[in-house]
Protein backbone atom coordinates (compact mmCIF):
# COMPACT_ATOMS: atom_id res chain seq x y z
CA UNK A 1 0.00 0.00 0.00
CA UNK A 2 1.42 3.37 -0.96
CA UNK A 3 2.03 6.13 1.56
CA UNK A 4 -0.61 8.82 1.85
CA UNK A 5 0.23 12.02 0.00
CA UNK A 6 0.36 15.12 2.20
CA UNK A 7 -2.12 17.71 1.04
CA UNK A 8 -2.50 21.10 2.74
CA UNK A 9 -6.10 22.12 3.54
CA UNK A 10 -5.98 25.06 1.13
CA UNK A 11 -4.33 23.16 -1.75
CA UNK A 12 -5.69 23.80 -5.23
CA UNK A 13 -4.13 22.27 -8.36
CA UNK A 14 -2.17 24.86 -10.34
CA UNK A 15 -1.24 25.04 -14.02
CA UNK A 16 2.42 25.71 -13.13
CA UNK A 17 3.01 22.27 -11.57
CA UNK A 18 3.43 19.00 -13.47
CA UNK A 19 0.05 17.76 -14.73
CA UNK A 20 -1.60 15.11 -12.57
CA UNK A 21 1.28 14.79 -10.14
CA UNK A 22 0.71 12.96 -6.84
CA UNK A 23 -0.73 16.02 -5.12
CA UNK A 24 -3.19 16.74 -7.92
CA UNK A 25 -4.25 13.10 -8.09
CA UNK A 26 -4.76 13.03 -4.32
CA UNK A 27 -6.71 16.31 -4.46
CA UNK A 28 -9.13 14.85 -7.03
CA UNK A 29 -9.31 11.49 -5.23
CA UNK A 30 -10.41 13.25 -2.02
CA UNK A 31 -12.84 15.47 -3.94
CA UNK A 32 -14.42 12.44 -5.61
CA UNK A 33 -14.60 10.45 -2.36
CA UNK A 34 -16.26 13.37 -0.54
CA UNK A 35 -18.76 13.77 -3.37
CA UNK A 36 -19.54 10.05 -3.30
CA UNK A 37 -20.00 10.10 0.47
CA UNK A 38 -22.43 13.04 0.19
CA UNK A 39 -24.48 11.17 -2.40
CA UNK A 40 -24.53 7.97 -0.32
CA UNK A 41 -25.56 9.95 2.78
CA UNK A 42 -28.42 11.55 0.84
CA UNK A 43 -29.49 8.10 -0.35
CA UNK A 44 -29.52 6.75 3.20
CA UNK A 45 -31.63 9.74 4.27
CA UNK A 46 -34.05 9.08 1.42
CA UNK A 47 -34.45 5.42 2.32
CA UNK A 48 -35.05 6.31 5.97
CA UNK A 49 -37.53 9.00 4.98
CA UNK A 50 -39.46 6.67 2.71
CA UNK A 51 -39.62 4.01 5.43
CA UNK A 52 -40.75 6.48 8.10
CA UNK A 53 -43.26 8.35 5.96
CA UNK A 54 -45.21 5.36 4.72
CA UNK A 55 -48.71 6.20 5.81
CA UNK A 56 -52.24 5.99 4.51
CA UNK A 57 -53.41 9.40 3.34
CA UNK A 58 -57.19 9.50 2.91
CA UNK A 59 -57.33 12.57 0.66
CA UNK A 60 -56.76 11.57 -2.99
CA UNK A 61 -55.11 14.88 -3.96
CA UNK A 62 -52.73 14.74 -0.98
CA UNK A 63 -51.89 11.12 -1.74
CA UNK A 64 -51.22 11.94 -5.40
CA UNK A 65 -48.99 14.84 -4.37
CA UNK A 66 -47.01 12.63 -2.01
CA UNK A 67 -46.64 9.91 -4.65
CA UNK A 68 -45.37 12.51 -7.14
CA UNK A 69 -42.84 13.74 -4.59
CA UNK A 70 -41.69 10.17 -3.95
CA UNK A 71 -41.36 9.42 -7.66
CA UNK A 72 -39.29 12.56 -8.14
CA UNK A 73 -37.08 11.67 -5.18
CA UNK A 74 -36.56 8.15 -6.50
CA UNK A 75 -35.71 9.46 -9.97
CA UNK A 76 -33.16 11.79 -8.40
CA UNK A 77 -31.65 8.88 -6.46
CA UNK A 78 -31.44 6.82 -9.66
CA UNK A 79 -29.49 9.62 -11.38
CA UNK A 80 -27.22 9.81 -8.35
CA UNK A 81 -26.71 6.04 -8.44
CA UNK A 82 -25.43 6.43 -12.00
CA UNK A 83 -23.26 9.32 -10.83
CA UNK A 84 -21.69 7.09 -8.16
CA UNK A 85 -20.71 4.64 -10.92
CA UNK A 86 -19.01 7.50 -12.79
CA UNK A 87 -17.24 8.58 -9.60
CA UNK A 88 -16.01 5.00 -9.08
CA UNK A 89 -14.78 4.95 -12.67
CA UNK A 90 -12.88 8.22 -12.11
CA UNK A 91 -11.31 6.80 -8.93
CA UNK A 92 -10.24 3.73 -10.91
CA UNK A 93 -8.65 6.00 -13.55
CA UNK A 94 -6.73 7.78 -10.78
CA UNK A 95 -5.42 4.43 -9.51
CA UNK A 96 -4.43 3.44 -13.04
CA UNK A 97 -2.75 6.77 -13.80
CA UNK A 98 -5.21 7.61 -16.59
CA UNK A 99 -7.20 10.28 -14.77
CA UNK A 100 -7.27 13.77 -16.24
CA UNK A 101 -6.56 12.75 -19.81
CA UNK A 102 -9.15 13.02 -22.58
CA UNK A 103 -10.37 9.59 -23.68
CA UNK A 104 -10.70 10.88 -27.26
CA UNK A 105 -7.53 12.89 -27.83
CA UNK A 106 -5.29 11.69 -24.99
CA UNK A 107 -4.54 15.33 -24.15
CA UNK A 108 -4.77 16.64 -20.57
CA UNK A 109 -8.20 17.91 -19.51
CA UNK A 110 -7.95 21.41 -18.08
CA UNK A 111 -7.67 21.61 -14.29
CA UNK A 112 -10.55 24.10 -14.22
CA UNK A 113 -12.79 21.60 -16.00
CA UNK A 114 -11.73 18.76 -13.71
CA UNK A 115 -12.30 20.93 -10.64
CA UNK A 116 -15.80 21.81 -11.85
CA UNK A 117 -16.60 18.30 -13.15
CA UNK A 118 -14.20 15.77 -11.60
CA UNK A 119 -15.81 12.89 -13.49
CA UNK A 120 -15.04 14.47 -16.89
CA UNK A 121 -13.55 12.04 -19.39
CA UNK A 122 -13.16 14.44 -22.31
CA UNK A 123 -11.54 17.80 -22.81
CA UNK A 124 -13.95 20.68 -23.33
CA UNK A 125 -13.26 20.72 -27.06
CA UNK A 126 -13.80 16.97 -27.45
CA UNK A 127 -16.99 17.18 -25.36
CA UNK A 128 -18.34 20.00 -27.53
CA UNK A 129 -17.59 18.03 -30.72
CA UNK A 130 -19.30 14.98 -29.20
CA UNK A 131 -22.39 17.00 -28.28
CA UNK A 132 -22.59 18.60 -31.75
CA UNK A 133 -22.41 15.16 -33.39
CA UNK A 134 -25.00 13.84 -30.95
CA UNK A 135 -27.34 16.75 -31.76
CA UNK A 136 -26.95 16.24 -35.50
CA UNK A 137 -27.77 12.53 -35.23
CA UNK A 138 -30.66 13.18 -32.88
CA UNK A 139 -32.26 15.61 -35.34
CA UNK A 140 -32.31 12.99 -38.13
From TrEMBL:
InterPro entries: DksA_N, DksA_RNA_pol-bd, DnaK_N, Znf_DskA_TraR, Znf_DskA_TraR_CS. A zinc finger (dksA C4-type) spans 102-126. Residues 24-94 form the DnaK suppressor protein DksA N-terminal domain. GO terms for cellular component: cytoplasm. Residues 46-68 are annotated as: Disordered. SUPFAM superfamilies: DnaK suppressor protein DksA, alpha-hairpin domain, Glucocorticoid receptor-like (DNA-binding domain). Its main location: cytoplasm. GO terms for biological process: regulation of gene expression. It is found in: Cytoplasm. The keyword Cytoplasm applies. Residues 97-132 form the Zinc finger DksA/TraR C4-type domain. Keywords: Cytoplasm, Metal-binding, Zinc, Zinc-finger. It comes from the Bacteria. The keyword Disulfide bond does not apply. GO terms for molecular function: zinc ion binding. HAMAP family: DksA. Interacts directly with the RNA polymerase. PANTHER family: RNA POLYMERASE-BINDING TRANSCRIPTION FACTOR DKSA, RNA POLYMERASE-BINDING TRANSCRIPTION FACTOR DKSA-RELATED. Transcription factor that acts by binding directly to the RNA polymerase (RNAP). Required for negative regulation of rRNA expression and positive regulation of several amino acid biosynthesis promoters. Belongs to the DksA family. This is RNA polymerase-binding transcription factor DksA. The lineage of its organism: Bacteria, Pseudomonadati, Pseudomonadota, Alphaproteobacteria, Rhodobacterales. The gene is dksA.
Amino acid sequence: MKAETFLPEDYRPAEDEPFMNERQAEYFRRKLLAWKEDILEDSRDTVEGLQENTRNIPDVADRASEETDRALELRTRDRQRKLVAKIDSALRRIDEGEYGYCEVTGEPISLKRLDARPIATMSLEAQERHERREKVHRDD
